[in-house]
Amino acid sequence: MFDWINFLKLIEKKTLGIINVTNDSFSGDGILHSKNLLDQKFDFALKNNINFLDVGCMSTKPDFKILSSDEELSRLNFFVENMSDKFYYSIDTLNSSVAERALDSGFLIINDVSGFIDNKMIDLAIERECGIIVMHRNPGSENIHEKADYDDVVDQVNTHLIIQTENLIENGVNRSQIAVDPGLGFGKKMDDSKELFFNLNNLINTYPIVVGYSRKKFTDQLNMTNNQMINHCLDSGVDLLRLHLDN
User: Could you tell me which of 67, 147, 151, 216 has the fewest CB atoms within 10 Å of its CB?
Assistant: First the structure.
């Protein structure tokens, strides 16, 4: 059974490095079918003591289009054929068949930005006893980017995350498998993401917390350097920072 507490002891640096196996990533850093670019990402990670990587084969930028399973699997296969054994891996996907292929290939964790609303994804996590990252999502919409109206964004995100995680546990997921992500920039107005960012210390602490702010538009309004943002997150009790591999 995967246990986040034990796994985090294996992480050299509190960073989850992003690998986009795409040609249309929001940040323009996709490495689709380029072994040279992939090797550059690996080299950067190693030089910066990053040994945990999050691999996504479909862009989830605003107005993204769902890929066919065959296309997403093809992209994952390219990565698997060229992956390095010097890292731990999570798979960033909404597709249970892609997640299953990744787990078959040695990945340890499923990072599902839809918040595990797919029963097949829940069943897979239970069957494989793998780690999971549960991202907060607007519970009133199937579109992860549809903006919600919050009266108290910190309180409401906490409430939603509790509902999401307790539902998983009731369905058979073990608590030790779960980490949570407040979903900065997903389904939130910029002011909401800023409010969440400055109140990371007030998020639920029942589970390890993963935070991804890298290259999100709201950070332009923070008036903070990258090092200041990193230190703020770590000082606020964040367990992992999901960052692009050039920060």
Answer: 151
